[in-house]
Amino acid sequence: MDLNTLSTIEEIKKMDHAQGTDVKGVFVLKKKAVKKAKNDSSYFSLEYGDRTGNFHSFCFGDNPIYSRLESIDEGSPVFVQLITGVYQGRFSPRLTETRSLSDEELADPDLSARLVETCLENPEELWAEFQKFVEAIEHEGLRTTVRLAIGEIEVGFRSTPAAVAMHHAYRHGLLEHTIHMARACQALLPFYTEVDPGLAMAGLLLHDIGKVIEYEGELSVSKSRIGILQGHVVLGYRMARKAGMVAKLEPDLLERLEHIILSHQGEMEWGATAMAATPEAVFVSMIDNLDARMGMVQYALRHRSEDKPFSDFLPGLKAPLLTDPISKIELSSEDIQDSLDL
C-alpha cells in the first residue's frame, strides 16, 4: 500500500461532495458506537481521523462491511474506501470498504506521522520555554516542587494531548496548552498585584499533570482505567502533593498549590472538586478557561471549510464558530454615516 496514493481527510473534505467521488484513505477509527434506528435496526456511528482532521459517518446493518466493522476496535488504523456525500448539511460519506491494516502496513515508518495530529509549534522549543518558566519561579520550594512533579512524568507530559476532543486534543497538546497559559499568566500578572506570581505560575504549570495518567493510547486517545475512576484533577493533586512533601514545601503554600489544581476546572459540574477560593486559584482557573476556549477557536479556524461560513457545532462554545475571514471592504465616511443613521 502506497500512502502517497491515498487521500487525507483534509483533501477529501475539499472535494466536490455533490459529485459522489470515490476515494481511498488510511485513518484511525477513533470512535465506534452501536445505535438504534427508528425502525429498531442497529447501525454504527463512526468517527475517523488523521493528522489533518476528522469526520463522522454511519454504517447500517444492510451494508456488507457492517460485519467487518464489528471486529475492528476503536483506536485501530484502518483502510477505508468511501463515496463522498453530505447529510443534513454536514460532510458524511458512505463507506464502501474497510479492513484492518496488515503487520507490514503497520510497520510503515510514515504511518504514525500521517495519522497522528500534532501541535503546530515546535515541541522542543515549547519544552525549552517550559523549563525557563520553571526556573523563573523565585520561591525555591515551589520551583523544586514543580521540578520534582514534572520529572516523574516528563516523557508523557511532553507528548500527551490536553483532551480527548474538546481542546488541544492532539500530540503535544498538553505542553502547548500549558505554555499558552504561562505566556498569558506572565502578561496578566502586572495587572493583578494581589496574585502571588510564583504560586500562580507553579499551580499553572502543574494544573493538568494528571492528564498524563488519565489518558492512554498512541494513535487514538482514550481515558485509562484510573483516569475514569479518579480523573486528572485528583491525580494531579496527588502528584503535586507528593512532590511538595518531598521538597518540604511550607504547609500553607502546599495547601494553596493543591487548591489551584483541585479548583482549576472552574465549576463542580466541569470536574472541579472545589470552587476557586484564593486569588491564585481564581486567576489560574480563568486563564485555563480562556485558553481552552481559544484552543477550540484556533482548531476550528485551522480546519475551516472553504464552502461553509461556520464550523460544526462546538459543544465547548455551545455554538458553531464563524470561520469566514473578516471582510476587508473599506467603508467610506458616507457609508459609515448611513449606517449610523439607521
Structural account:
This protein is of the alpha+beta class. The chain folds into two domains: 3-115, OB fold (Dihydrolipoamide Acetyltransferase, E2P) (Beta Barrel); 123-299, Orthogonal Bundle (Hypothetical protein af1432). The protein is 43% helix and 16% strand. It has helices at 9-13, 66-70, 103-106, 111-115, 123-135, 140-151, 154-159, 173-188, 197-206, 211-214, 225-229, 231-246, 251-263, 279-302, 333-341; strands at residues 22-36, 42-50, 53-60, 76-83, 86-87, 90-91, 94-100, 215-216, 222-223. A five-stranded antiparallel sheet has the order 3-2-1-4-7. A hairpin with a 5-residue loop joins β1 and β2 (42-50). The protein is globular, with a radius of gyration of 23 Å.
What brief labels describe this structure?
342 residues, alpha+beta, OB fold (Dihydrolipoamide Acetyltransferase, E2P), Hypothetical protein af1432, 2 domains, five-stranded antiparallel sheet, two-stranded antiparallel sheet, globular
Architecture per CATH nomenclature, i.e. the level-2 architecture of the largest domain: Orthogonal Bundle
CATH topology of the largest domain, what is it called? Hypothetical protein af1432
Beta fraction: 15-25%
Secondary-structure element pattern, one letter each: HEEEHEEEEHHHHHHHHEEHHHHH
Name the strands of the widest sheet in spatial order.
Answer: 3-2-1-4-7
Helix fraction by DSSP (H/I, runs of at least 4): 40-55%
Shape: globular
- Counting structural domains, the number is 2
Mean pLDDT: 89
